[in-house]
Specification:
Helix content: 55-70%
Number of helices: 26
Strand order of the largest sheet: 7-5-6-4-3-10-11
Oligomer: single chain
Distance between the termini: 53 Å
Shape: elongated
Length: 758
């Protein structure tokens, strides 16, 4: 087992990866080559071709080539090396990176989250880390601004989703441009191949790539690092060869003076061509997003000592070749390969293109999963592909959707230059979103002065805006694809989030009054039948309307009633010991409880244990320890926020439960009650209520799920009616049902339908 797998399997937090031995760090650095840098390392296949695909012409003095190389060098150095490797990677969220990690930090430190059902108890999670340092006047002013203007909190989420949607567009474009660029090199040796043959071969490779996704990357992960390493060594060797053979003075282009000369001499055409230059840093966002799988130090070592110098030598060597072969600009990368090593390099390039595509596809799965946690994407079935490495997932619906879109782009465009224009717009937009979020993190989280954040924003934001402006100019020439794909996903995410929030608002406004429940007496005015009833609800307090609707039509329910709420909190992971919150609802005689399951935005709702047995174990432990903690529990009553509920939703504590053994419920050795621990209790005389719960478990467990159907109100606009009655209804109908996500047996399922108007 490799070190990274061992850490994940044994549940050691990612932060501890920073304190491991130097051997482990070097091992992780080597492994990161296959997972993190695949996308970045295949950029030389198409950078120069895309840059010179427009009206930009080459002159005998080679100033255009020198200027482009200068831009490539400083772009990689400033954005990839300084911004991402040395600055952005410091802003990890408990070891996790990416856009959602930055957004999560801001939500925790500034209260920017718009997720419903947030509780004070969530802030006591071990992953809910804040440094506790006092706010500066700058951070206080920024927090106050968002508190006074809720619309800006919504706007921040939309801004984050913009970057997310562009990242999904990246997941569509990367496989298409990478595979087509790699395969097109064979045309140099087999000249009779028609363009249609190249497209067909590329499509076959793409279909094979997406068809193998359900096996998971861990099946072939051991091959990734050696192949990417071999690819980087090939690039380095070819680059050095071309420098010494064609133009040993090419290093003069590293001077920033050539950038100024380039823009001065080429004017608008030079500015527009920068949309191709930015492709040299595609994959840097993936580098940050994959931070959770490795340590920051290992990623820095791999990039600084191997990836960075290898890419620079590659681009310098190709520029040296172009300075003597202007006519080969369309095939400059493969033309620059020495004849004797062409086929080995071609084979390695094809494998490297597949690996780069694999990394982006896996990242897209992770992004969609996180969007589901933010209520910004319909529920989809998420499958673990590795029993050892947590976080490697596969989403069938998303996989086939990406495949269809990638095939459509490949067949429709057939031109890597047009794909590159769309690719560049997607990448630069994501980078600009990260820059803006980082500036806010500097003020709110790091408590830096405003001048520091502004300087960071001006230096890197201005560069990225320059590249974005060049890419936007290429909208008619292919960049429209990125806008179209991201706009479609943006509309889906916004409509789903809007409908979901309206549903939660309906549930809150139509809660059954606790006073009314208590006035019905211990039996709640119903026939109480043997068994346990689990009512799934979106609420962390009160009695949901679906329960009232159910008993109105069928005035009978189970002896033990548990309201189960599954919610997400603004942390990447919630450890198992802190996942469950149990409280009592109403007087003891009513036999009603509440169970809250908490997940982080990178957690998966797939439990590796029998949830029914674990829940019963938790209920028994709660009942047995309730009296001892009653006085402490009242301190938490304020988190429920409703006066008629505070008296009954109490005695909350977080528990850690051992796995059931031979159908016998035992208490765990670690019961965390509020802030203190109670010792291990192996066996004792159970209270009558505990015995009733165990007896009810033997009678069976029934799941009650509410199906809410949204309808627009009659006076609504045509746009709103279309969004709710057509789009949201379609998404709801085709999203994965909750009972499938929770693996509920059909024989134990009861579904209650309700209609709500928005």
């Amino acid at each position: 087992m490799n070190p990274s797998e061992e850490f994940v399997e044994h549940g050691i937090s990612q932060q501890n990866l920073r304190r491991v031995s130097s051997t482990t760090v070097l091992t992780l650095a080597y492994q990161s080559l296959g997972v993190v840098y695949g996308d970045l390392c295949i950029s030389p296949l198409y950078v120069y071709k895309t840059t010179f695909s427009g009206k930009l012409s080459l002159h005998d003095n080679d100033e255009e080539i020198y200027g482009v190389l200068s831009f490539i060098f400083w772009t990689i150095t400033l954005i990839a090396l300084f911004k991402y490797v040395f600055i952005v990677m410091l802003a990890d969220d408990n070891g996790e990176g990416g856009t959602f990690a930055l957004y999560s930090l801001l939500c925790r430190y500034a209260g920017l989250s718009i997720l419903p059902n947030q509780q004070a108890a969530d802030e006591k999670l071990s992953e809910y880390v804040t440094d506790g340092s006092a706010d500066t006047w700058q951070s206080s002013a920024l927090k106050s601004f968002f508190e006074k203007h809720p619309r800006f909190r919504k706007g921040l989420l939309i801004f984050v989703l913009l970057g997310t949607c562009m990242a999904i567009a990246d997941g569509v474009l990367t496989p298409a441009i990478s595979v087509l660029s790699a395969v097109s090199g064979v045309k140099l040796k087999i000249t009779e191949l028609h363009e249609n043959h190249i497209v067909i071969i590329s499509c076959v490779i793409l279909v094979g790539l997406f068809s193998l996704q359900h096996y998971g990357t861990h099946k072939v992960a051991f091959m990734f690092a050696p192949i990417v390493t071999a690819w980087l060594l090939c690039l380095t060797g070819i680059g050095v060869y071309n420098i010494f053979r064609w133009n040993s003075h090419i290093f003069h282009a590293l001077s920033p003076i050539y950038m100024l000369k380039f823009l001065k001499n080429t004017g608008v055409e030079g500015w527009v061509s920068l949309g191709g230059v930015v492709l040299a840093i595609t994959g840097v966002e993936t580098m940050f997003a994959n931070l959770g799988h490795f340590s920051p130090l290992s990623i820095r070592i791999a990039f600084t000592f191997l990836v960075y110098p290898s890419l620079l030598l590659t681009y310098m060597g190709e520029a040296a070749f172009l300075s003597k072969h202007h006519e080969d600009i369309e095939r400059s990368f493969y033309k620059a390969i020495p004849e004797t090593v062409f086929w080995p390099v071609f084979i390695v390039a094809t494998f490297a293109a597949v690996i780069g595509s694999q990394a982006v596809i896996s990242a897209t799965f992770s992004i969609i999963s996180q969007c589901c946690a933010l209520n910004c994407f319909p529920h989809v079935r998420i499958i673990h592909t590795s029993s050892k490495i947590y976080g490697q997932i596969y989403i069938p619906e998303v996989n086939w959707m990406l495949m269809c879109l990638s095939l459509a782009v490949t067949i429709g465009l057939r031109d890597t230059s047009m794909m590159g224009h769309a690719y560049g717009l997607a990448v630069t937009t994501v980078m600009f979103v990260t820059t803006c979020l980082m500036a806010m993190v500097m003020i709110i989280v790091w408590k830096q002065k405003t001048i520091t954040a502004v300087a960071f924003l001006l230096v890197f934001g201005s560069m990225e805006l320059l590249y974005i402006s060049a890419c936007i100019f290429k909208v008619p020439e292919g960049a429209w694809i990125a806008l179209t794909v991201s706009s479609i996903f943006m509309a889906v995410m916004y409509i789903w989030n809007y409908g979901t929030m309206k549903k939660h608002q309906f549930d809150v406004e139509n809660k059954v009054s606790m006073n009314r429940i208590v006035s019905l007496g211990p039996s709640l005015g119903m026939v109480r039948v043997p068994g346990i009833g689990l009512v799934y609800t979106n609420l962390v307090t009160g009695v949901p309307a679906v329960f009232g609707h159910f008993v109105t039509n069928l005035p009978a329910f189970h002896q033990v009633l548990v309201f189960v709420c599954i919610k997400f909190v603004q942390v990447p992971y919630v450890c198992e010991k802190e996942r469950i919150l149990i409280s009592r609802v109403g007087p003891k005689e009513c036999g009603m409880f509440r169970c809250i399951l908490r997940y982080g935005y990178k957690d998966l709702q797939q439990e590796n244990y029998n949830f029914e047995n674990r829940l019963v174990s938790g209920l028994v432990q709660f009942v047995e320890t309730e009296d001892e903690t009653a006085s402490k529990a009242t301190d938490f009553c304020g988190e429920f926020g409703n006066s008629d509920i505070e008296a009954f939703d109490s005695s909350v504590h977080t528990i850690s439960i051992s796995y059931p053994e031979e159908d016998r419920v035992r208490c765990s050795c670690d019961i965390q009650v509020m802030t203190s621990d109670i010792g291990c209790v192996e066996s004792f005389l159970l209270k009558d209520e505990s015995l009733q719960i165990l007896k009810a478990k033997e009678s069976g467990v029934t799941y009650v799920l509410g199906h809410s159907y949204a309808k627009s109100k009659k006076p609504s606009s045509i746009f709103k009616k279309f969004a709710i009655d057509v789009v949201y209804a379609f998404l709801s109908k085709n999203s994965t049902e909750p009972n499938i996500l929770m693996k509920v047996s059909p024989t134990s399922l009861l579904e209650v339908g309700m209609i709500y108007y928005v």
